[in-house]
Amino acid sequence: MSNKLIIAKPGFNVLTETNPDNLIFSSDYGTLKYYTSGSIVFNITIDRLDYITSSFISHNLGYAPFFESYVLGWNSNYQPAPLFFQGASTTTKYDVIADANKLYFRVQMTGFTIGNTYTVTFYYFLFKNNTGLI
Amino acid sequence: MSNVLKVALPGYNALTDTNPDHFALYVDGSTDHILIKEKQRGSGSVNDSSTATITHNLGYIPYVLVFYEQASGKWRNVRGDDSFNSSNFYIIVTTTTLTINNFSGATKNYKYYIFYDVITGTSANTITESAQVVKIAKIGKNALTTKDPNDFIFHSDLNSFKIIAQGTFSDTLAAFTYNQLYLLNHDQSFIPLVYGFVKFADYSHILPPNGEDYTVLGFSDYAVRFNYIEADVDNIRISMSNNDSSPHSFTLKYYIFEVPL
Questions:
Q1: How far is Cα of residue B118 from the mean position of the Cα atoms in its chain?
Q2: Using CA atoms, how far apart are residues B150 and B109, in angstroms rounded to an integer?
Q3: Contact A65/A98 with Cβ under 8 angstroms?
Q4: What is the pLDDT of residues B223-250, one digit of tens each?
Q5: What burial class does residue B13 get, using C-beta atoms within 10 Å of its C-beta: 0-12 exposed, 13-18 middle, 19+ buried?
Q6: pLDDT band at B63 (very low <50, low <70, confident <90, very high)
Q7: What is the pLDDT of residue A23?
Q8: CA-based Rg of chain A, rounded to a whole angstrom?
């Protein structure tokens, strides 16, 4: 019999419970482990009808990690990314992708008034979990 | 030497392995490998052209996961707005609430999970601990005195987000193929929470679902897209599109998480 570390939720018997949803923790199951979080800000001045900007942060893990990203968009909403939404005459796209060393962020705003300014902030969690894809 | 606590997954040696992916819990004293900690969960339904608001009152923007039944028996993670996939269903998070917005044309069921982990803001929350706990503080925090969930790598009063299974799938998308659906048996007794990333063979990026065409992102010269990933009672379902004149190979890395839907 293997050694295990298992912690059951209140009301469940750790010696007999097999449903992982009734466990706080079990050494039988992997976990997402994040090690850093941060943000990147885009200060935008619309200078064309199809405005695009992008940037990146370096994680330098040497592999493509599991990541999560939220965006505080120009409409002051916090939402998970990627996302795409349409207004009456505008479209907005927020994208996030990663490679072995960087996390890339992209903003595309189409149909906005030239000269208007906006601030868009991406927030990210970087996990040590290696997707194994790169 | 730092204090360490390492709980290896089956088949791995906690004494010799150094890959955090091979551990359920990995505390090495030099880097915090923090487990996501659940605060609350729930479910409901929201009518078309309506919203549902859930209060969390954490005082900061927390990490949340929301799934909705986009079609009968098919549950999909909400990534901001699902407009790419012609389903206007999205979430908005504030420092006190999670709001589920449904403009999809029909009533939708949803399930949500709110975690203590901070997207942005400052945590001043505390929990009332059980009489007996196992807890591991982050570097620089005192496990004996702090009660803020965000000061812990792990706390036995707070559910840890478990990866039940993970795997890969590879295929080649034929030229000019749109919304190609793949079904991968997940072998679970419930509809699981699933997520994943895709990498195309010719390039070195991983793409999450619900994003733009790869070529539009400026890194590739062919228009392929990871439309979505979702699950039903039997399968993980992924949708891919290839708007290029050539076929393209891809690999999906998928994760099956604990929470039954």
A1: 15
A2: 30
A3: yes
A4: 899 999 999 999 999 999 999 999 999 9
A5: exposed
A6: very high
A7: 86
A8: 20
B2 vs A72, which has greater pLDDT?
A72
pLDDT digits (tens, 9 = 90+) for A56-74: 999 999 999 999 999 999 9
Contacts of A31 in chain B (CB under 8 A): 24-25, 35-36, 160-163
Q: Does A87 touch chain B (CB under 8 A)?
A: no
Identify the pLDDT of residue B28: 86
Helix (H) or strand (E) holding B65: strand B61-71
Q: Select from A24, A30, A33 the Cβ nearest to the Cβ of B156.
A: A24
CB atoms under 10 Å from CB of B170, counted, come to 10
What's the confidence (pLDDT) of residue B233?
Answer: 94
Single-letter amino acid, residue B180 = Q
Query: What are the tens digits of pLDDT across the range B210-221?
Result: 888 887 777 777
A75 touches chain B (CB under 8 A): no
d(CA B70, CA B184): 18
Q: Do B162 and A29 touch (CB under 8 A)?
A: yes
Question: Which among B20, B93, B161 is the nearest to A78, CB-wise?
Answer: B93
* Residues B138 and B30 sit within 8 Å (Cβ to Cβ): no
Rounded CA separation B94/B92 (Å): 7
Burial class of residue A85 in the structure, from the number of CB atoms within 10 Å of its CB (0-12 exposed, 13-18 middle, 19+ buried): buried
SS3 content of chain A, % helix, strand, coil (to 5): 0, 55, 40
Could you tell me the pTM of the whole model? 0.92
A104 contacts in B (CB within 8 Å)? Answer: 205, 217, 219
> For residues A58 and A86, what is the distance between their CA atoms, to the nearest angstrom?
31
For residue B259, give every residue at least 6 positions away whose Cβ sits within 8 Å of its Cβ, in sequence order, or none.
Answer: A21, B41, B111, B113, B192, B193
Single-letter amino acid, residue B99 = T
